[in-house]
Amino acid sequence: MAWIQLNIIVEEALAESLSDALMEIGALSVTFSETGGQEIFEPEIGTTPIWDQTRVLGLFDAQVNTTEVLLALTQLMPQIKPSAYMFELIEDKDWIREWMDQFKPMQFGTHLWIVPSWLDAPNPEAVNLLLDPGLAFGTGTHPTTAMCLSWLDKHPPRNLRVIDYGCGSGILAIAAARLGAQQVSGTDIDPQAITASQDNAQRNQVKIEFALVKDFRAEPADLLIANILAGPLKELAIEFQRLVKPGGQLVLSGLLSSQADELVSHYRDVGFTLNQRDTKDDWACLSGFKV
């Protein structure tokens, strides 16, 4: 089976209305993507970010009459010129296999691997985490996640109490548990993240307590690791001061390299010395200890 795909770039203000119009006239799906000119690093919590110039893709059955589609869109969205719409034929593929082939085992540091569940571990003797791409952020492909995993591999938290704050998929909590942590807990503001983390922990046969931030109760930890964003990291400094033992370790990532100096200074004011910095691409990972 093949499909017809409509491809158009519109201003942000038109994207949602165009999506509604496409669904109204029979599109099987509508997706948004960036056009290469703008990256959204830190959207506001609770918002769905859309690029200033947004590519809108509408997927139709191959038997659809494109002339009728174009006529209906012209009536529903008269502010868009008909010449702006481009139709293309999308050939049939084994889409599941196509998606699965994008993901390969990834190594972090010396001992730690992330392995999709449908593949064999390249090194069965290593610490192999089974993790499939899913709804929540964090499969090891993003530079900030990669830096946190490499830090854990280099500093295995054997016999320590660990908190993964902003757990996403639970990948960092699971890595800590598999690297010998005595007790691990994780928290996030997103219920989907908690569900994904619990599923991934079960798949990796580790016991970790995950809870939403509003329900999270934990004793001060030997290590707290937070891979979120610079804004929330700044706001959470006092909370992290409470959640880390004196002399305990703190690892922060999810921030841009350009934001690192300000965050180091901010955390110094609440009793942390962040004296190590790793960078990858435009991102940074800070680590240190509570005085």
Which characteristics define this entry?
291 residues; alpha/beta; seven-stranded mixed beta sheet; four-stranded antiparallel beta sheet; 9 helices; 14 strands
Short description:
The protein has 291 residues and is of the alpha/beta class. Helix content is 29%, strand content 32%. It has helices spanning 12-24, 66-76, 95-100, 143-154, 171-178, 191-203, 230-235, 237-243, 260-268, and strands spanning 3-11, 29-34, 53-61, 86-90, 106-108, 112-115, 127-130, 161-165, 183-188, 209-212, 221-227, 244-256, 272-280, 283-290.
Structure description:
The protein is of the alpha/beta class and 291 residues long. The chain has helices at residues 12-24, 66-76, 95-100, 143-154, 171-178, 191-203, 230-235, 237-243, 260-268; strands at 3-11, 29-34, 53-61, 86-90, 106-108, 112-115, 127-130, 161-165, 183-188, 209-212, 221-227, 244-256, 272-280, 283-290. The strands form 3 sheets. Strands 10-9-8-11-12-14-13 form a 7-stranded mixed sheet, with helices on both faces. A 4-stranded antiparallel sheet has the order 2-3-1-4, covered by helices on one side. The protein is elongated. Mean pLDDT is 87; it is low at 38-50.
| Dominant shape | elongated
How many distinct helices? 9
- Strand-and-helix sequence, N→C? EHEEHEHEEEHEHEHEEHHEHEE
| Unreliable residue runs | 38-50
Largest sheet: 7 strands, mixed
